[in-house]
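Quick one, tokens below. Sequence please?
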């Protein structure tokens, strides 16, 4: 049996650990052959492949990024996209596909499996941790550690200059990175996409922090929105899944804070630093377990499923269900940490 593997969407630390586990178990235990597809769905769409065997995955466990490359190509938006994928899989004798991705990549895998009869298994990845069927996605823990270290460092420079430091982190629709890193880093304000914020309230927290003779750290998710405004966009461009590019809310907020409080403010945008580099030990562990279970789904012919973490168990859930709804921050959880604001 020949199994295809692809990684789609924004990359994240741990992708190579999944690929390595799939290949190691697939070759050693089940005698499978593998074909790597380059750059997400672009690979099967254009028949662009890369050798994938045990030597190809050696030494990749601690490496960030993905040895297969990634893209946000949406084959459902390409003329004859499904037909081209099916023809290329048949030509390459690939009988099953493991798609490692977030909501968009796995949404395509769900439709290919359920509507077009392409046998797919999904593995959830995203630093945003916003897939509802799994307790955690790999990549999130690494991103939170990077953001927390940045916040720790920003505390000392903020205090030397008695300035406000606004830290913008990733998180388009879900504030998980902001919430976890903000709490771990002792931020004084945490703003998430799920709850619109009041700039006057933010300024009141900032002022009260200065009153206590400390410099405030404000953590804001890139998708957070003021009460009477919209998401701040980088530019008007859309990717092929229809997502706008975000970033800029941190800069905007720092200016508002300066003009309303008279205190100096600076912004740090962490951006893709959160997605790069070596995965944390937890992400290596989770990614490896996802890979081992994904290849078991292939062996069992359990297609149209995604592997997911529930507690400490890896379970299988229908791909269509897993991609139907995003996992966002519960208002009760957000309220719980409000005691640290200001
Ligand atoms: O989906 C993960 C993510 O990192 C989001 O948090 C962010 O908005 C987006 O990807 C950035 O995408 P790109 O790298 O394509 O600009």
């Amino acid at each position: 049996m020949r199994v295809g593997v692809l990684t789609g969407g924004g990359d994240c630390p741990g992708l190579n650990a999944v690929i390595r586990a799939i290949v190691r178990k697939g070759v050693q235990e089940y005698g499978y052959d593998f074909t790597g597809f380059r750059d997400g769905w672009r690979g099967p769409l254009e028949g662009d492949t890369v050798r994938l065997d045990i030597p190809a995955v050696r030494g990749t466990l601690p490496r960030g990024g993905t040895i297969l490359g990634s893209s946000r190509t949406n084959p459902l938006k390409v003329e004859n996209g499904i037909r081209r994928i099916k023809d290329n899989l048949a030509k390459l004798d690939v009988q099953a596909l493991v798609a490692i991705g977030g909501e968009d990549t796995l949404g395509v895998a769900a439709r290919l499996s359920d509507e077009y009869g392409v046998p797919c298994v999904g593995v959830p990845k995203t630093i945003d941790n916003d897939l509802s069927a799994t307790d955690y996605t790999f990549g999130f823990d690494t991103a939170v550690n990077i953001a927390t270290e940045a916040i720790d460092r920003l505390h000392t420079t903020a205090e030397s200059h008695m300035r406000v430091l606004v830290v913008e982190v990733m998180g388009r629709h879900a504030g998980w990175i902001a919430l976890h890193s903000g709490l771990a880093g002792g931020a004084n304000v945490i703003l998430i996409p799920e709850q619109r914020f009041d700039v006057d309230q933010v300024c009141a927290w900032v002022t009260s922090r200065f009153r206590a003779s400390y410099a405030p750290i404000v953590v804001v998710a890139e998708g957070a929105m003021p009460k009477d405004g919209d998401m701040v966009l980088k530019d008007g461009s859309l990717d092929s899944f229809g997502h706008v590019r975000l970033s800029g809310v941190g800069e905007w907020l720092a200016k508002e804070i300066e003009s309303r409080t008279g205190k100096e403010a600076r912004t740090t945008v962490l951006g893709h630093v959160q997605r790069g580099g070596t995965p944390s030990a937890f992400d290596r562990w989770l990614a490896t377990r996802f890979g081992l279970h994904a290849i078991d789904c292939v062996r069992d012919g359990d297609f149209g499923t995604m592997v997911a973490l529930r507690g400490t168990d890896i379970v299988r859930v229908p791909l269509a269900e897993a991609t139907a709804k995003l996992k966002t921050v519960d208002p009760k959880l957000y309220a719980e940490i409000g005691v640290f604001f200001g």
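The domain at 144-275 is CATH 3.40.50.460 (Rossmann fold). The chain has two domains: 2-138+279-322, 144-275.
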